[in-house]
Amino acid sequence: MKILMTLSNPFTHDSRVYNEARSLVKTGYKVTVLAWDRKRENSPREIKDEINVVRSYNTKLMDFLPYNIFRLHFWWNKGYKDALRLYNEESFDVIHCHDLSSLPIGVKLKKKLGLPLIYDAHEIWGYMVAKDLPWWRYYLWKEKKLLKFIDHMIVTNPARKGFYKDKGVENITVVDNCKHLISRKYVSPDNKIFTLLYIGMLYPVRFLLELVDVVKNLDGVRCIIGGAGKPDYVEKLKQKCNEPGNVKFIGKVPTDEVIPMTKNSDAVFCMIAPWDKNDITASTNKQFEAMVCGRPIICTKDTYSGELTKKENIGLAIPYTKNDLKQAIIKLRDSKKLREELGKNALNAAIIEYNWEKQEEKLIKVYEEIEVAYSSRQQQIRQGDIYGK
Questions:
Q1: Is 251 in a helix, a strand, or coil?
Q2: Distance CA 25, CA 23 (A)
Q3: Structure pTM?
């Protein structure tokens, strides 16, 4: 079976899409990822670990527009045309759309080609863009309108499954952002100074400026912050990190360095705003990176990540305040025994349930069911042709 995935980023650092595509390839499927490279920074075609990557570039009109959110609507049409060209080169059997930012392409392809459509919602997209766009409700409406065309939906956790169940979607599978197991043996970090790590998206709601304020006044604590985000905010964060001597800003981190750096830390920081409607139900990469490395996490209470942390006893889920963050860091700094207890719990939870190998099984099952249904439908069509129906 041949699969077309559509994606609104250039497919250079998207670990979730890579893990899914790679798992499908290993199982025997052929996967092509049609990725939107809005800055033309990568090659138009490449083979990445047996995944066929085709990148779609902006038209001149798209480049002329001032914001990516405006370009997005034109990319839905451009991506659809690019996908049809790929289909004419070598037909595919299933369309797999990642996030609402590429779902309109898949719906148009389904209408045109009659192929099964999988919608993989990494985010609740309308809530995600609410941070920046006053018309964010349009995307909630847009998504609801398109949901009726999908054959199966993939979400990242039970909270997201409940959200889309309430929207009337029936066929939903949870495939979480878990990571590959790297070891089944707990290994304690060997740091002379308690080291707290954050590598991820650099947004104001991630409590990073506040983290620097807290850490700079603490003895015996070292903090490392890396990732990418909007230039203005990143520059502000970078300058703030340069003020104290115990905070280091490292900028973008290559994907293959994230897990080793996590394993070398004493704890992982991942706080998100409890009022953010998208983030409170999000599965965070940081949490699952910490788990496979056997490291405790500091996260926000009354969020999905906070509830998971409490359920598995793998870190500290705290209120979204500087004082509570300060007390949590001190608590972990001053107790190696507690860090090891939480870290061992985290690794054990990863071994038992929260690992990519478990998620891979669920993903493959979705495709096996799609393949059976598709084959049955094709057989019915052929029989209809034979009997003149």
A1: strand
A2: 5
A3: 0.92
Q: How many CB atoms lie within 10 A of CB 296?
A: 27
> So what's the pLDDT on residue 381?
63
Q: Please name the amino acid found at residue 87.
A: Y
CA distance 340 to 294: 8
Strands 51-56 and 45-48, sheet pairing:
antiparallel
Please identify every stretch of the chain with a pLDDT value under 70, giving residue numbers as ranges. 376-389
Q: Which domains, and CATH codes, for the chain?
A: 2-178+357-386 (3.40.50.2000), 194-352 (3.40.50.2000)
DSSP character at residue 36: E
DSSP secondary structure letters along 186-246? ------SSEEEEEEEEE-GGG-HHHHHHHHTT-TTEEEEEEEEE-HHHHHHHHHHHTSSTT
pLDDT of residue 131: 85
DSSP for 253-311, written as a single string: --HHHHHHHHHTSSEEEE---TT-TTGGGPPPHHHHHHHHHT--EEEETTSHHHHHHHH
Report how far residue 227's alpha carbon sits from residue 203's, in angstroms, rounded to the nearest whole number.
10
Query: Residue 347's pLDDT is what?
Result: 98
List CB contacts of 281: < 8 A, sequence separation 6 or more: 124, 157, 159, 160, 163, 303, 304
Q: In what order do the strands lie in the sheet with 297-300?
A: 247-251, 221-229, 194-202, 267-270, 297-300, 315-318
CA distance 65 to 72: 10
Burial of 22 (0-12, 13-18, 19+ CB in 10 A): middle
Spatial separation of the C-alpha atoms in residues 101 and 73, rounded to whole Å:
9
Q: How far is CA 242 from CA 221, 239, 251, 278, 286, in A?
A: 15, 5, 12, 31, 24
Q: Shortest CA distance to 188 belongs to which of 268, 316, 328, 294?
A: 294
